[in-house]
Amino acid sequence: MQTIAFIGPGVMAEAMIKGILRKNLAAPQQILAAGPRQERLEELERAYGLRTSTDNAAAAAQAQVVVLSVKPQRLSAVLRGLKGHLQPQALVLSIVAGASIEKISQGLAHVAVVRSMPNTPGQIGEGITVWTASPSVTAEQRETARQLLGALGEEVFVEDEYFLDMATALSGTGPAYVFLFMEALIDAGVHLGFPRRIAEQLVVQTLKGSVLYYQQAGRHPATLRNQVTSPGGTSAEALYYLEKAGFRTAISRAVWAAYQRSLELGKEKPLHLPEAPHPEE
C-alpha cells in the first residue's frame, strides 16, 4: 500500500485507519491525516503513530490515495482547496454522503474517483460499504479501494452510481433506525416494570441472537417471523398492532426521506443550512 492521505480526520476516517492498521495494509508512517483542528490531529498521532498536517493540499500532494472524509456541507470548499495539488495518477476515494463522482471529479479536475458509502459498524470492522468507480480507475486502483473499504467490514461493488444514494438511505443510515428501534424496545420494557439494565440486556441479546439465527437459518425473514407467530398468541397480537399502526409504511417512508436527502446533499449546500465548523475535519 502506498501513502494514504485522509482529508477530514473524523470518526469514519479513524475507523478506516484502525482497520488499515489492523489488517496491516499500510504502516502508520504511510498514513497522513489532514484537518484544521490541531488537537484532533495530535489525538490521532498519539493513538496510531501516523503523520498529520493542517494543510489539506500539502497532505494530498504527498499521497497516491486521497480519502475524502469531510462533512457533505464542507466538500465544495475542500475540493477548491485541493484542486491542482493531487498527483496525476492518484486515486481519490470518497466516503462523503451524497457527493457524486461528477462533482468530485470536476471539483478536483481529476478523473480517478471511487465513491463509497460505509456505515457506523465499520468502526468495529463490522460495517458494510457500497462503492463504485469512475471509468478512469484502473484495475489496480480498484483492488486498492476494495482492500481499504474492506478494512471497515464487508464491501459491495456496484456498476451504477445511483445505487450509492440508495445505499446511503438503507445501510448508511440504517444503524440509526436500528438504534431507535432498540431504544423504543428498551423504553417499553422499562414501562412494563423491568429495571433499565435488564431491559437493555434483553433487547440487545434478542436483536443479536435474531440476526445470528437468521444468518444460520438461511431463510426469508417472513418465514422466520411466521415460525414464532402462533395463532391467537402474543406475537400475533403484537404484530397485528404494529401493522395497524403503519410500522412498515413508516420505515419505508423514512428510508425514502433519507434517499431524497442524500440527493439534496449532492447538490450545492441549501441556503437554510448554517455555515459552522465541524469537529470531524
What is the CATH topology classification name of the largest domain?
Rossmann fold
Biggest β-sheet: count, sense, barrel?
8 strands, mixed
* Shape label: elongated
Helix fraction? 40-55%
Q: Which series of helices and strands comes N to C?
A: EHEHEHEHEHEEHEHHHHHH
| Sheet/helix structural class | alpha/beta
Identify the strand order in the major beta sheet.
3-2-1-4-5-6-7-8
Poorly predicted parts: 269-281
Quick one: CATH class of the largest domain?
Alpha Beta
Give the beta-strand count.
Answer: 8
CATH-defined superfamily of the largest domain = NAD(P)-binding Rossmann-like Domain
CATH architecture of the largest domain: 3-Layer(aba) Sandwich
Mean pLDDT: 92
**First and last CA, distance:** 24 Å
* Radius of gyration using CA atoms only: 21 Å
Beta percentage is 5-15%
Your description of this structure?
With 281 residues, the chain is of the alpha/beta class. The chain has 2 domains: 4-167, Rossmann fold, CATH 3.40.50.720; 174-265, ProC C-terminal domain-like (ProC C-terminal domain-like fold), CATH 1.10.3730. The chain is 52% helix and 13% strand. It contains 12 helices and 8 strands. The chain has helices at residues 11-22, 38-48, 56-61, 75-82, 101-108, 139-150, 162-172, 174-192, 196-217, 221-227, 234-244, 247-265, and strands at residues 4-7, 31-34, 51-53, 65-68, 91-94, 113-117, 127-133, 153-157. An 8-stranded mixed sheet has the order 3-2-1-4-5-6-7-8, sandwiched between helices. Strand 7 (127-133), helix 6 (139-150) and strand 8 form a beta-alpha-beta unit. Helix 7 (162-172) packs across helix 12. The two termini are 24 Å apart. Residues 269-281 have low confidence and may be disordered.
